[in-house]
Specification:
The protein is an alpha+beta fold and 410 residues long. The chain has six helices and 16 strands.
Amino acid sequence: MSFSVNTNLASLAALQTLNMTEQMLTQTQNVISTGQSVSSAQDNPALYSISNTIQASIASLTAVQNNLSFGQSTLGVASNAASQISSQLATLQQTVTQADQAGISPTTMQNQVNAILTNINQFATTATFNGVNLLDNVTTSRLNIVQDTIGNSIAVTNQNATTTGLGLTGLSVTGSNMTFAGLANQATAAGDTLIFKGAGQTNTTLTTYTFTFATSGNNGAVSGGGTSAVGVNVVIGPSQAATMSNLISAIQGIQGNVPSTGSAVTPQGQMFSATLDTAGNLVVASNSTASTSALSAGSYTPATATATDAAITGTAGTSAQQAILIVQNAITLMNAKAAVLGSAEQQVTGLQNFNTQLSASFTSGVGALTDANMAAESAQLASLQTKQQLGIQSLSMANARPQMMLQLFR
């Protein structure tokens, strides 16, 4: 074995070992300080890339959870308002039922009906959360709730729980009505006509109203004052339901005037209300604010009688009697609308729970990939600190070896 002053091999070996120990000690201290075995791409490129991808998914799930919370709040407001409307409808059914009893003032009961209808509209139009209302009559209002990280969403359309949406517009217990049984189940064709007599320019003169089904029409407001006959074209829609909707719009579009003094007239607005009950019967009722004249001589006549398009004779009745059926139909509609909201709430709650569990699973997965075993790292640190001390001593001894060669020259 040779001895050299220029090249101290033992010192170089000791220094190399000490440097490696220092690197490992630095790495272990970094792991302990961050709590992660993989905190940068340098530690483990593959695991670092995977963990970053999962972290991005967790951030997306947080955004989805926020969207679901917003949607849940919006649906909650709508559901609470829907419950209030359902309660008002129950009260309304009680009121219109009482209105048909002898000895009770129809006018007084009508005032109660109007107050309830006002409440229903109030609940529907004020059920707004952060600018979204699912119960007003704005058909473009809808709620889109992002449900996952790939952009799928839950769409909840406007339920229109106003008096218009529930078929309660112009509900009256003081006038009369005309029922056309099963009209909604017909195969309406061009040239078919629906006729009834009702309030005209005065409260005692009846005007004949003729609604002719055609491929084009107006379906708009038509003045019923000052004439003994009013004719309106009703557009045939792509379905019988659409055709009936156009017919109802045409009937409710009739506007009336009633003389006050001399030749002067007082505008009375909408003359009739119209609705379809659950059995497909069309019910036309006189609007008490325009006239209390009885509806009469009602008939539906097909241009060509067929097995699916037959003649119907209108049946007259009191508005109080028909109001009960109209309100019952409104209750059925409201129950369906409330069910839509409740189903959406249930779906959102399920998604919230799922996203919470999914986020927890992702977080656990990232931890499994990157979290450090602190017990093992603690033992590693103690070991490396000991090796560091030994390395320093070894280097010190190696550096002292050249001094020993001076003994050879004494």
